[in-house]
Amino acid sequence: MAEPTNTPYPPSTPVPASTPRSSSPAPPIPSLSPDATTTTISLRRTCATKVPPARPIVLHIGDPIKYNLDTHAEFSKVFEVVRLTTHERERSALIQALKEGQWGDFSAIFRPFWGSGGEMGRWDAELIDLLPNSVRVFASAGAGFDWADTKLLGEKGIIYCNSGLAAAEAVADFAVAMIISTFRHLPWCIGAATLPYLAPSSAEDTDATARKLFQTCHAQATAASHNPRGNVLALIGFGNIGQQIAAKLGHAAFGMKIAYYDVIRKPPAVEAELGATFYDSLKGLLAVSDCAVLCTPASTDGKPLITTETLGFLKPGTRFVNIARGSLVDEEALADALESGLVSSAALDVHADEPRIHPRLVRMAGLEGPNPGRVMLTCHNAGGTVETHIGFEELSMRNIMAVLDGKDAITPVNLHYLPKA
Q1: What is the pTM of this model?
Q2: Which residues of the chain fall below pLDDT 70?
Q3: What angle do CA 250, 263, 146 make, to 5 degrees?
């Protein structure tokens, strides 16, 4: 999901000047000296009697570290890392253990992988209210943080750090493929070449079907396909991922015109570097869009951003891509827009009811009907690379090390909720 150096931001792609999705720019990622004394020495309290001091306790929820073994070795020297068993991570067991103070006054919660550690369900008031006042930081894999009440964590004085920075390049790369798909109808092209051979049938029928689908796609896909160059790429959200998409598809590469809407306008230098035009409303952005890409965090109120109303702002034939959160899209409304032709094609990596995919969208991804393969559907794969998971591990550990060492968190998302003091 080649092992690069242990940096949460892959060095292979030029990174535009940007800020993580947080209340302030992230400071440089702290580095470890070979003997770890530079980073960790202040965490070791001196003691005149030479009795070894107690180490801060970090609760590790989820799978063990797989990649950044050197960093984890230093992490384990400084902290007492307690990895919860699968049973201890189940909600009822976790609640009981927190009530009993099983792990004492621990200082941090560490979830290095998105695919494990979610057994306890959402971190809401029921869990957060049981955390001891000693907890200062919750560092987790993944870009999204709708699974944890970051407001309540902040009000309790706990900094929540995500790892979106580590996934930004992988998600942006995947988005490029999905955007191109909406212009070139890749599901149709791929399906017509392969599906006849995957369905059980006689050799004679398979050959006839394969010839028909291949020749039809070869002859007709041209009339529905377009080059991305010169089209307006409308980015809904312009954080790290949005800016990387702009860099990959903008004037220096695919020649698309970059437009964006974000709750916070980016500095003029960022806009100039990426050739990006800011729109101060979603309506204004969608009205000029040839391909709209949703790359913004999940809403705190749980309400969709893409609805019948907002889709109505589009000009007919616009394309739509979602690599953000499935909950942000009213999928019935999107299916209606696709059927009416308001949206000509779409690509969705995330879905409202995962792992189930909306049945109307599934049908539109098939080869039946007058507009075959109009929708590209994937399985929440955008951020899923080995390099991303290496970054998740590293960035989560470094966030905890920084906060417990009295330094600034690297990728905080809830500083604005912390008590003013």
Answers
A1: 0.81
A2: 1-53, 200-202, 299-300, 421
A3: 100
